[in-house]
Specification:
The structure is a homodimer.
Chain A: H1 8-16, H2 22-40, E1 43-45, H3 48-59, E2 71-75, H4 102-109, E3 113-118, H5 146-153, E4 159-164, H6 170-176, E5 179-182, E6 202-207, H7 210-221, E7 237-240, H8 251-266, E8 270-273, H9 283-298, H10 300-306, H11 313-319, H12 324-344, E9 350-354, H13 374-379, E10 383-390, E11 396-402, H14 408-422
Parallel strand pairs in A: 2-3, 2-4, 7-8, 7-9
Antiparallel strand pairs in A: 1-3, 4-6, 5-6, 5-10, 9-11, 10-11
């Protein structure tokens, strides 16, 4: 097995013991890119010499963390001081930020090798980039973290950073058959990530196992990451929540989730069906209003100077209709729903919900529907998708586990428990 | 009277009617800068030719808003695409951002003339810049929006943008004898403002009257700003709140506030003494923990590459001690306190609190104490300081009016009512 297929835990142990070099790992990842990029189009920018130079420098040091020497793909909505950052927009062609995003600087502090920039939908919104689903290139990889999901799924990199404002980490992870993790809001500092909707934008992680993603999250959020292990789980309390969007899930997804609820119970979980309080009937509208108010202003400079180069310009113009009073009222609804979901979580460790309405749609004109993700993004709750189902076209589908705000490690542990029970 | 002393309402009417040109207004402001800048040091960057060219272009157009042709000073923590932006740090010497901050683009859309960049404390934190208090240059102007407050107070510009993470708009406004307004969190989009503490950073406005500040806020937040007027106020319900920091207020401030409470009641307000719920005993510690966790990471790139150039580097190192679990627990305390203060506000239109512990301290080694401001910044509530008191050294002191989240216009109207009653 070439080293690009190793888990981070495996690779880190081999690097720490000197059995594998960071250069070797980088070479194997780059070799995979060389073979596959023409079909997958995961990368907005990658320079093999730059990657190898970084890996050589890491090999010359003692390991700084369990991510030492691990190549990480960075969604091109995230600033890097030594690589172009184009936000999926021609407005920023060739743009080189002055500074790394905080999350990139934290990865460099940990000894990670920044491998390159992955394709993002325009400004992390809905207009797709060039990336194909590596499992079937006639299908979308999902978005907006399209290239990050494809690169990890295709063994070009073991780990990637993505961002999620609606469903931009979980959905592409589910479509590409990998693990996607959207932490609690602001758990990973978003400074240097091009803002879209400030109240929702969340930096997330994509990997090929829950353990890999959890380890990377630990390195980015705690000083004791070297000794890190997920908390043990026994008989997790799982709320099976079909959501207000259940009718948008296709038959295969509905059947898979119903079956999963039974199998999780059979494996020892305490599974209960759950609904959210009546206030949540106001949630979708409030979520949209906050999103529209913030996004339309976040891109004020681009709209003022380069509106004709913005693919979603009409959507932004319509978003201008939300008034200050509507925005403030909508923020109150979201606050109240965040409080109410905390109350619901008193009875559950995690909720089980679909990761997406179905398999990755065919074609590259859409990145798919975020309906099963955007609630949790706006509620600021951690969410993990694990690849445990196959759809009718043979493409992967995910199960999504959602936990209460701040319970990121417990949520990851429950997702790992669920993965083992369902896979 | 030279036009640089006009209120925005006066200047806008004269510009709209063609009686005064934007160039004339800019020239008068620039003339004041030429006379006073050597003593005040308000500006990090100002180019008179650039300002005049902008004003000429505005004179060639029909007025786009009530801010058309009005010069606005921009705190140098806020990005501009045509002027350097140095964040008060040598790390960013000569840095020219690719894009305007959203708030600057919105001002340009409204026809405002961007006059230049004003001195900020390093990264909008505590290390002072070079600005002096224009009312007595031996005293601090306050910070971190030091240059913005000084420029407006000294009639160099009628309006300025500042930012507040602790007390960085209200405190310098109070010290310089002007009106400072920190809106509800995120009311003015913060994209393109160098982040410090994402959960607190708020774009604010500084002017010489409540009406001026309210008009500018209306232009930045609503499409009907041309017909804008503050809501009428009759017998406002005012909660007199001495705060948990009352002992930090000097005798003159305590006496002024006690007297103000009586005079507001005499003028017709329903004034009641108020305290906040017991949960607020946990607030200060939670506020600090969230601030430390976010700030220490927000500057990860600068700390990684240029730590020796950061004046507050030791403070940032100490901030690293806050753990992920402490951060998440502290965010919960803040959420709960935000909810509780909303309950308190059911009985009040605004709270009356000190704007600062006293007059501007002598000397330029500190920007003063934010203790009376930082609670409201972290609670996300709108706050206005109006210059209604004089301290023992003859320098101005402010009264601060704080309203519930989203009630920005009512809070401004109450502050104007209070100003008229007390001034």
């Amino acid at each position: 097995m070439t080293t690009n297929r190793y888990s981070i835990t495996e690779a880190a142990a081999l690097i720490a013991s000197g059995k594998v070099t960071a250069v070797r790992l980088a070479e194997d990842c780059l070799a995979r890119v060389a073979v596959r990029e023409e079909a997958v189009h995961a990368w907005a920018y990658i320079d093999p010499q730059q990657v190898l130079a970084d890996a050589r420098a890491r090999d010359a040091e003692s390991p700084r963390s369990p991510l030492h020497g691990i190549p990480v793909a960075i969604k091109d909505i995230i600033d890097t001081d030594d690589m172009p950052t184009e936000y999926g927009s021609p407005i920023y062609a060739g743009y080189r930020p002055r500074a790394d995003a905080a999350c990139v600087a934290l990865l460099r502090n940990a000894g990670a090798v920044i491998m390159g920039k992955t394709v993002t939908a325009e400004f992390a919104m809905s207009h797709p980039g060039k990336t194909c689903n590596p499992l079937d290139t006639a299908h979308t990889p999902g978005g907006s973290s399209s290239g990050s999901a494809a690169a990890v799924a295709d063994h070009m990199a073991p780990l990637a950073l993505g961002t999620q404002t609606g469903g931009s980490v979980l959905r592409p992870a589910a479509f590409c058959g990998i693990v996607g993790f959207k932490p609690t809001f602001d758990a990973i500092n978003p400074v240097g990530v091009k803002p879209n909707t400030k109240s929702y934008d969340t930096v997330g992680l994509m990997g090929r196992s829950v353990g890999d993603v959890a380890l990377a999250f630990a390195v980015m959020t705690r000083s004791d990451a070297a000794a890190f292990a997920l908390p043990p789980i026994d008989k997790p309390r799982i709320g099976f929540y079909r959501t207000l969007s259940w009718a948008k899930a296709d038959a295969a997804t509905q059947a898979a989730l119903e079956d999963a609820a039974s199998r999780l119970a059979a494996a020892g979980a305490r599974v209960t069906e759950v609904t959210l309080p009546a206030k949540f009937s106001e949630f979708a509208d409030a979520r949209n209003k906050v999103g529209h108010y913030e996004t339309s202003r976040a891109l004020a400079w681009e709209r003022r100077n380069f509106e004709e180069q913005i693919a979603v310009r009409e959507k932004l113009r319509r978003a201008d209709a939300v008034t200050f009073e509507q925005y403030m009222a909508a923020q109150k609804v979201l606050d109240e729903c965040r409080r109410l979901v905390d109350v619901t979580f008193a009875d559950f460790d995690v909720l089980l919900v679909p990761s997406a309405p179905g398999e990755a749609p065919r074609g590259l004109t859409t990145t798919g529907d975020a309906t099963f993700n955007q609630t949790w993004t706006a509620l600021h709750t951690p969410a993990v998708t694990v690849p445990v189902f196959k759809g009718p076209a043979g493409l992967p589908m995910g199960a999504q586990f959602v936990g209460p705000r701040g319970s990121d490690y417990l949520t990851l542990a429950c997702a790992e428990w669920g993965f083992r029970a369902l896979a």
